[in-house]
Amino acid sequence: MPDAAALPAPARALIAAVGRTPLVELPFVAEVAPGTRLFAKLESVNPGGSIKDRPVARMLVEAWRAGIFAGGRRLLDSSSGNAGISYAMLGAALGVGVTIVVPGNASRERLDRMRAHGAELIVTDPIEGYDFALREARRLAEAGPDRYWHCDQYSNCHNWLAHFDGTAEEIVTQLSELGLGPPDALVAGIGTGGTLTGTGRRLRQANPHTHIAAVIPETFPGIEGLKPYGSPGDIVPELLDATLIDETLAVTSDQAAAMCARLARLGLYVGPSSGAFVHAALEVASQRRYPVIVTFLNDTGERYVSTGMWQQIATLRHT
């Protein structure tokens, strides 16, 4: 994390709380691969409640230090929700105006939190999909270069660098404290590509043989926070290093929700992208080739109550 000493006090406090998240071991991996150890970074403990605090904090600190917001320029970006919350939270702490283009299928809890921090929201038609919001943010940036600074988390190098310098270093250190070397496999999804690219590059330095599996959601209804990838017309994030990917694993929203239910019974209340990651990690484990696997619990399940996900899970339990 860049030096934040010159920032306003609220921003310093929030940024100091980003990262150094717990590495939680998930014991049920033994059901598919006895002897394999599966770990997940619990990112909901970040001040904004998700893994997106890491790249957003770094991108905003770098922009602040460069004088980007002088003269009242607003921060602009697109987000399905978690990055938007991080932008809104840290923008409020910095005294920076924030405009977020959000797909209309973002959960009410995410929209409410962004608005609570004072962010301006431009909500796009959910039928248009994830990429439409991205294109709309680019259009606004081009039309108003003096009004907006387009952070563009899909191409901003400080996105993946936050994971290279922070997330991956934490993983290596935490495994070392357990007497383990760098992981044999990493399971991550693609939103902007920052987590997979930054963490993957650093872990490959530590262990050139680290297997990297990418989680791909179904196109509709999709999984919040994960980008459909691989179909004609899908925007490929500029910062995604696809050469790192050894394997892609398709996960449905039902599979993600079922895993969220199982994780909740371990005390881990997480959102659907986390469920998708752990579901995919068990598939990787079932190959019985990777003794130590790491993935991510990206955010909190409290962000998805209004979507009906938890009611659906409760119904399934009683049928």
Structure description:
- The chain is of the alpha/beta class and 319 residues long.
- The protein is built from 10 helices and 10 strands.
- The protein has 2 domains: 14-46 and 163-313, Rossmann fold (3-Layer(aba) Sandwich), CATH 3.40.50.1100; 53-150, Rossmann fold (3-Layer(aba) Sandwich).
- The strands form 2 sheets. A 6-stranded mixed β-sheet has the order 1-2-10-7-8-9, sandwiched between helices.
- The termini are far apart.
- The chain crosses the membrane at residues 85-106.
> What is the number of helices?
10
**Largest β-sheet summary:** 6 strands, mixed
Order of helices and strands: HEEHEHEHEHEHEHEEHHEH
Q: What class do helices, strands and sheet pairing give? A: alpha/beta
| CATH topology label of the largest domain | Rossmann fold
- The gross shape turns out to be globular
The number of domains is 2
Low-confidence stretches: none
Distance between the termini: 48 Å
Beta content comes to 15-25%
As laid out across the biggest beta sheet, the strand order is: 1-2-10-7-8-9
Question: Helicity level, as a percent range?
Answer: 25-40%
Q: What is the CATH architecture annotation of the largest domain?
A: 3-Layer(aba) Sandwich
Radius of gyration: 19 Å
